[in-house]
Design a protein that fits this description.
With 770 residues, the protein is α/β, with parallel strands linked by helices. The protein has 24 helices and 31 strands. It has an eleven-stranded mixed sheet with strand order 7-6-14-8-9-13-10-12-11-15-16, sandwiched between helices. Strands 28-29-25-24-23-30-31 form a seven-stranded mixed sheet, sandwiched between helices. The chain has a six-stranded mixed sheet with strand order 17-20-19-18-21-22, sandwiched between helices. A hairpin with a 2-residue loop joins strand 15 and strand 16. The longest helix has 26 residues. The protein binds zinc ion (2 copies).
Length: 770
């Protein structure tokens, strides 16, 4: 070799077994020198040996949980050659972080817990450097045992030996444990521990139709037999959750294959170390009686996950069938994580608890994802994904650090610095006071863990969001400027930034199809076509505004949106005539339509809205979906999507584009006309839904292309909660295919409000760069 070299590795390389991996390769390639963690990642000094081969092997096959961003090599002058290769202890003051996401049980640990010869046979808390809890047990940084909730457990000599042996899979695996020294599992009923094998006893109760509280990685679940209709209904009753779909855990991939048509991409996602809940289309031939109908009424997809910890794997093997695994919380509140807390809050829901004594430091919900058009789309970013960092596009490196606090629903916060951004885990809906408490704690938690001190704070335009008021107080406290970012501008910036659109890139045509967002004109936005850069935007077009009849009540009661749409489209008298004596006319006759129309005419508690979400509610209501009231957010829209899924529409409902002052309106009047004709003709609801989806997708794509052309846009960006709808997302993408412009859609960052903070951070950073 020519001379000594310094090799710098950046990325997610700490706390993932990177140093022992380098140590083993050094032996293989005859390298002498050392490896250490520091503030920038991993630093290797190589004095002798086949350095080219060594570096090639580092890049080629890194440890499962590592992500290498860059490897840089530089000569190392004037250092004496030393024999051997060593791992240098981490200097606690210099390592910046090491906070990595929790990872699902690896195949090696799975094999061990099934092997009667192994000392961790049937041990529910086995883990190694390639798997196990991380962020959920992390109390402080740098990441070592003393800064996790495992500090209460003293390692036994056998675990200690593994922990200290660089050749062992458990070298420096901080949560290392075994039955002799680690956390313990038990079953309890009414606060009393039940003797015997906890897994076997829990499985027996579940098979008998009982409901269990199960302490997992990021919180408690409520579980019951997914094939048992009575058990599922009982759980719904106890949790006061009439229809919202329940997530499922299956013993293995084969069990999921019985119930869902799986693509290779979906299998890979289920097997990912992040182990998210994956939304999967129900198979056509689900064996009768194998799944309870009450799991997800009216929907064509079910959310599935695989066991992601040894505890889950042992339990699922003993139950030998799918379980409901829904988050253990009281309606609207955050998931319980403490044993006492669970006893108090979930006690009334459950027949027994499967408990353990490893404390959960941080509440992490299961992540939710879906494959659409071949790409992963994260709908909820939490366990397994947080706190991984996201790269900001070229040009953002020199921007000052930003703290962005997102919106009101599906809240998350984002900290950016030096070209990267940390998007927090899902923090829930801030309308709930306890969730807001969690949000405030998380803001402190993240800034401490990542040693982040913002020079700019970013928030939504909405003055009454709790997150906005919190951001105002933070800006005040820190004495730094506050930047307000319009809701849909933030959505579009999120899609731009996720796709690497450069900071000084050309304007894009942004399409934000969404629920509600505060508009600068005092109306409520949600179906927007924007000419956008990171720092600013112009509204070019929107869905034709209609009254949000009754304000917030319209967000809960789809029939109100139907009345507002029909009244605006054709006048109520005409609409009534066309509905004739139909079932829908019957439903409407029981509603105070006359009062509502007076409210709308006088603009009382009826701000105008261009919300696409409310249009979906209206169309859903026309088909009788959640007509009176939504029992969960997005219910009518999700049922409408389910109706249209798998049906090839023979035509698309037309939409008009009309001039309206300086902007254009995408007008659903012709759509309503065609839909009412179809209703009168007795057209099946599935076909009506399919025609609506295709019509909206085509009209959206055509208008987007036209506007993009007019402003010479560099790309078309798609975002907003409505793009969680797989049918619409696929169709819009197909319609835009071949338009000659890149289409920037969301994948790792949610298209819903969970992605807002990321977009806000990009906007605030870009404004500071100007
Ligand atoms: Zn493992
Ligand atoms: Zn041990």
């Amino acid at each position: 070799m020519a001379g000594a070299e310094k090799i710098r590795v950046r990325g997610q390389v700490q706390g993932v077994g990177f140093r022992p991996f380098v140590w083993r390769l050094a032996a293989e390639f005859g390298i002498s020198g050392d490896v250490r963690n520091d503030g920038e990642g991993v630093l290797i000094r190589a004095f002798a040996g086949d350095v080219d081969g060594f570096v090639g092997a580092i890049k080629e096959n890194p440890p499962p949980l590592a992500h290498i961003d860059t490897v840089e090599r530089a000569p190392l002058a004037g250092t004496a050659v030393q024999p051997g290769f060593s791992i240098v202890e981490t200097d606690r003051s210099s390592a910046r972080t090491g906070a990595t996401p929790d990872a699902a049980m690896c195949p090696a640990c799975h094999a061990e817990i099934l092997d009667p010869e192994e000392r961790r046979h049937r041990y529910a808390f086995a883990n190694c450097t390639h798997c196990g809890p991380r962020f959920s047990i992390l109390e402080n940084i740098p990441y070592d045992r003393a800064s996790t909730t495992m500090r209460a457990f003293d390692m036994c000599p056998s675990c200690r030996a593994e922990y200290e042996d660089p050749a062992d899979r458990r070298f420096h695996a901080q949560p290392i444990a075994c039955p002799d020294c680690g956390p313990r599992l038990w079953l309890e009923r009414d606060g009393v521990e039940i003797e015997g094998d906890a897994i076997a006893a829990a499985a027996k109760l579940l098979r008998a139709g009982k409901i269990l509280g199960i302490k997992g990685i990021g919180g408690f679940h409520l579980a019951c037999d997914a094939a048992n209709e009575d058990a599922v209904r009982l759980l719904r009753e106890r949790k006061r959750r009439p229809k919202k779909p329940f997530a499922l855990m299956a013993p293995d991939m084969d069990a999921i294959r019985c119930h869902a048509a799986l693509s290779p991409a979906e299998e890979a996602l289920l097997n990912d170390p992040a182990a998210p809940i994956v939304l999967l289309e129900k198979a056509d031939d689900i064996p009768a009686g194998s799944l309870a109908p009450a799991l997800a009424p009216g929907l064509s997809v079910l959310g599935w996950m695989l066991p992601y910890s040894p505890l889950h794997a042992l339990l699922m093997a003993a139950v030998d069938g799918p379980l409901v695994m829904t988050s253990g919380n009281r309606s609207g509140e955050p998931q319980a994580i403490g044993n006492d807390e669970a006893g108090t809050k979930l006690g009334p829901f459950v027949d027994a608890f499967l408990m353990h004594d490893r404390p959960i430091a941080r509440r992490l919900d299961d992540s939710v994802a879906r494959i659409v058009s071949g790409d992963i789309r994260l709908l909820r970013r939490a366990r397994g994904y947080a706190p991984a960092s996201l790269d900001l596009p070229p040009g953002f490196k020199s921007a000052p650090p930003v703290a962005a606090f997102g919106g009101e629903l599906k809240s998350a916060l984002c900290l950016s610095r030096a070209g990267t951004a940390i998007l927090s885990h899902h923090l829930g809906d801030l309308e709930d006071a306890l969730s807001f408490g969690e949000f405030q704690k998380a803001a402190k938690d993240y800034s401490r863990l990542f040693d982040h001190c913002p020079q700019i704070v970013a928030a939504d335009l909405h003055p009454d969001y709790r997150a906005t008021r919190f951001a105002e107080a933070e800006a005040e406290r820190l004495g730094v400027p506050l930047t307000r970012v319009q809701h849909h501008h933030a959505h579009i910036a999120s899609a731009m930034a996720e796709n690497g659109w450069p900071a000084d890139g050309a304007p894009v045509l942004g399409v934000a199809l969404d629920g509600l967002g505060y508009g600068p004109d005092g109306t409520v936005w949600g179906g927007e076509f924007l000419a956008a850069t990171y720092s600013g935007f112009t509204r070019l077009a929107c869905l034709r505004p209609v009254p949000l009849a009754g304000g917030d009540a319209a967000n809960r009661e789809p029939w109100r949106n139907l009345v507002a749409q029909l009244d605006t489209a054709m006048g109520w008298d005409v609409a009534q005539k066309r509905l004739g004596k139909s079932a829908l006319a019957g439903l409407l006759s029981e509603k105070p339509v006359a009062n509502l129309r007076v409210l709308m005419q006088r603009r009382l508690n009826s701000p105008l809205t261009s919300s696409t979400g409310r249009l979906f509610d209206a169309v859903g209501a026309a088909l009788g979906l959640a007509f009176d009231r939504l029992t969960y957010e997005g219910e009518a829209a999700m049922e409408l999507e389910a109706l249209g899924a798998g049906i090839s529409p023979d035509r698309a409902y037309p939409f008009a584009v009309v001039e309206a002052g300086n902007i254009r309106h995408l007008d659903p009047v012709p759509m309503w006309d065609a839909l009412l004709t179809d209703l009168a003709d007795g057209m099946p609801p599935g076909q009506i839904s399919a025609r609506f989806h295709l019509g909206l997708a085509r009209a959206t794509a055509q208008l987007a292309k036209k506007l993009a052309d007019e402003i010479s846009a560099g790309a078309i960006a798609l975002s907003g909660g409505v793009f969680q709808n797989a049918l619409l997302m696929r169709q819009v993408a197909e319609e835009l295919d071949g338009c000659g412009l890149p289409v920037l859609a969301q994948r790792e960052v949610p298209a819903n409000d969970g992605g807002l903070a990321f977009g806000q951070a990009a906007v605030a950073a870009a404004r500071a760069l100007r």
